[in-house]
TrEMBL record:
Identification of the protein by name: Phosphatidylserine decarboxylase-related protein
Source species of the chain: Sulfurospirillum deleyianum (strain ATCC 51133 / DSM 6946 / 5175)
Transmembrane segments annotated in the record for this chain: 20-51
Superkingdom, taxonomy of origin: Bacteria
Keywords, sorted A to Z: Cell membrane, Decarboxylase, Lipid biosynthesis, Lipid metabolism, Lyase, Membrane, Phospholipid biosynthesis, Phospholipid metabolism, Pyruvate, Transmembrane, Transmembrane helix, Zymogen
InterPro entries per UniProt: PS_Dcarbxylase, PSD-A
Pfam families: PS_Dcarbxylase
GO molecular function annotation: phosphatidylserine decarboxylase activity
PANTHER family: ARCHAETIDYLSERINE DECARBOXYLASE PROENZYME-RELATED
A single BP term in Gene Ontology: phospholipid biosynthetic process
């Protein structure tokens, strides 16, 4: 896992600055040599686009609202069995390289544990992706519930970047993924709003709502 200091709000994500400077220098060289300068200018524009870092306005601000943690398309909504014998509602979002790469907190949360699984950077469409890909699993909690965020890196991701912070507000930037999948493992009583193949935006689109639980109800 790559851990950086807390993110910035520039129009271009700092994770792409080195790539952009490199492609810009190559473009200048190609322009000076009159060697396919149009092609390298196109590469520069594409690189800037991949690392764009737009601001996002939350559709709903209720503290029970669950936002999308990443831009992409809803790939899966199902009930799954966890290793501890419990069950969870799994929502998987597939992110292409053309989607914004910034990861955002789906709800106000504290990160309790991070588990790393080192693996291969392979296509997210491969049948081997789930078993062999590079993956980071975050166990999170807030005052209402606990849940997991599973980030899997695809073929075009060199790494999975997370920022050096443990507590986040809803919609706050917490990492960067160039391409791959993000899965949320949620309590079964979460009310899901989206459906399969639904396009979502990180920190803006509402995935669903947590069930309200009064502490007095447990007594």
């Amino acid at each position: 896992m790559v851990r950086h200091h807390y993110t910035t709000t520039q129009l271009i994500a700092k994770e792409g600055w080195n790539h952009i400077v490199f492609t810009f220098m190559v473009f200048l060289l190609s322009y000076a040599l009159s060697f396919f300068s149009w092609f390298f200018f196109f590469v520069l524009v594409v690189t800037i686009y991949i690392y764009r870092n737009p601001e996002r306005i939350v559709e709903e601000s209720d503290e029970l609202t669950l936002l999308s943690p990443v831009d992409g398309t809803i790939l899966k909504i199902s009930k799954v069995d966890l290793k501890d014998g419990s069950e969870a509602l799994c929502v998987v979002i597939r992110k292409s390289i053309w989607d914004v790469g910034i990861l955002r907190a789906p709800i106000g949360m504290e990160i309790i544990e991070v588990k790393n699984r080192f693996g291969l950077f392979i296509s997210s469409g491969s049948s081997l992706f789930s078993n062999l890909c590079e993956r980071k699993t975050f166990t999170c909690k807030n005052k209402f519930t606990s849940f997991k965020i599973v980030v899997s890196a695809g073929r075009l991701s060199q790494s999975i970047v997370f920022f050096n912070k443990n507590a986040y507000k809803a919609n706050e930037r917490f990492g960067f993924l160039r391409e791959g999948e993000v899965a949320l493992l949620l309590p079964l009583d979460v009310r899901i709003k989206v459906s399969l193949n639904h396009s979502v935006k990180a920190g803006e689109s509402v995935l669903g709502y947590l069930a309200y639980k009064d502490n007095h109800d447990k007594q």
